[in-house]
Specification:
The protein is of the alpha/beta class. The protein has a seven-stranded parallel β-sheet with strand order 3-2-1-4-5-6-11, sandwiched between helices. Strands 7-10 form a two-stranded parallel ribbon. Strands 8-13 form a two-stranded parallel sheet. Helix 3 packs parallel to helix 4. Bound molecules: nicotinamide-adenine-dinucleotide.
């Protein structure tokens, strides 16, 4: 499935964050569908450093790239010397996924440095090479604004959301100053699917609940989880959006969700059906203040400008993901 008529064969493609969840899926998409493309993954990979929340500072994992035949460069987007390793290439496309993706990191300095400062440098590379720039923004820029979340009304409520909001502003200004460039941001909602496992506790509830159930445990949810809705989107639709963004009608930052929110209870129920269990559900009080109760992407602008068309329902996504959830069950995510 190639999603658009763009021929990426013979093109040179940079994927920052390519050892992570979304980036590695993009890398394999090009390898499979455009075997003559030249794909370069740039990622700092994981070290053993953790944030104060106990999560790793970067989630890139070599196992996400086993079987990948392109170039892999281990480097930090915050380090100009590392970025200079890219000077030997001339890129046609840049998919900028590298970021501190953990929404619960409150070390503002490192979030801003990593997600914001480096974006200027990557935009400069795109400009120098006349490359198309598609970058990851996030639904976190909407904070707890009511659904549907629509481009033009943003209210980030954590350092991560604010950093992505700044990226959209930088992209907007850069687009105005460089009207010939293609610069498109994608505001991903809640993504799930293969190659997210190494994000540990920050991976989606689909795999986390799947493993709870496979452990024989009753899925554990916040009280009222049938009323807590999210716009969950399968990785294949995220890849589709990235591909279609390359031929966007106009620059901008667009929502990428299904437009069809579902509850955490739905996830637990679909998983139990798929896994053939009948463990019921246990509930506990939600410890978070100001918890977002409902997200729903308004995808009007992405349909109009990208031709984006979410194809995978939650039932279909979980169904195709279950063999991978089973394969990873009991394996270490380190
Ligand atoms: N997965 C989601 O639900 C979701 C939702 C909204 C936005 N996003 C955004 O999409 C992008 C990809 O997310 P993901 O889920 O694949 O996360 P991920 O953490 O798996 O991937 C990010 C990658 O960036 C790398 N990285 C981090 N800091 C780096 C640095 N300083 N230099 C080089 N590489 C660095 C990590 O090693 C990792 O491989 C991120 O920008 C994230 O903020 C993801």
């Amino acid at each position: 499935m190639t999603y658009s008529s763009t021929d990426f064969n013979k093109k040179t493609i940079l994927i920052t964050g390519g050892a992570g969840f979304i980036g590695s899926n993009l890398a394999f998409y090009f390898q499979k569908n455009f075997p003559q493309s030249r794909v370069i993954v740039f990622d700092c990979f994981r070290s053993e450093a953790v944030f104060s929340n106990g999560n790793l500072q970067s989630f890139g994992h070599y196992k996400n790239l086993v079987g990948f035949e392109g170039d892999v460069i281990c480097g930090n987007i915050n380090n100009l010397n590392d970025l200079s390793l890219l000077n030997k290439y001339k890129f046609d496309y840049i998919f900028h996924q590298a970021a501190i993706s953990d929404t619960r990191v409150y070390d503002q300095k490192i979030v801003m440095q990593t997600n914001v400062n480096s974006f200027y440098d990557l935009l400069d590379i795109a400009k120098k090479d006349a490359a198309v720039m598609v970058y990851a923004s996030s639904a976190a820029i909407y904070g707890s604004l009511p659904s549907p979340q629509t481009e033009g009304k943003e209210r980030p409520e954590n350092p991560y959301g604010f950093s992505k909001f700044l990226m959209d502003k930088i992209a907007d200004r850069y687009s105005r100053e460089n009207p010939d460039m293609v610069i498109v941001g994608l505001r991903f909602f809640n993504v799930y699917g293969p190659r997210e496992f190494f994000k540990g506790k920050t991976s989606s509830m689909v795999i986390q609940l799947g493993h709870q159930i496979l452990n024989g445990n009753t899925p554990l949810l916040f009280e009222g989880s049938d009323q807590i809705l999210r716009d969950f989107i399968f990785i294949e639709d995220i890849v589709q959006a990235n591909i279609k963004a390359c031929s966007s009608k106009k620059n901008g930052s667009y929502n990428v969700g299904t437009g069809n929110p579902r509850s955490f209870q739905d996830i637990a129920d679909i998983l139990q059906k798929e896994l053939g269990t009948d463990l019921g559900t246990e509930y506990f009080p939600n410890p978070y203040d100001g918890y977002q109760m409902h997200t729903q992407a308004d995808i009007g602008a992405s349909i109009d400008n990208l031709g984006f068309e979410p194809k995978v329902t939650l039932e279909q996504g979980i169904n195709s993901y279950v063999p991978e959830i089973k394969r990873l069950h009991g394996k270490p995510s380190k």
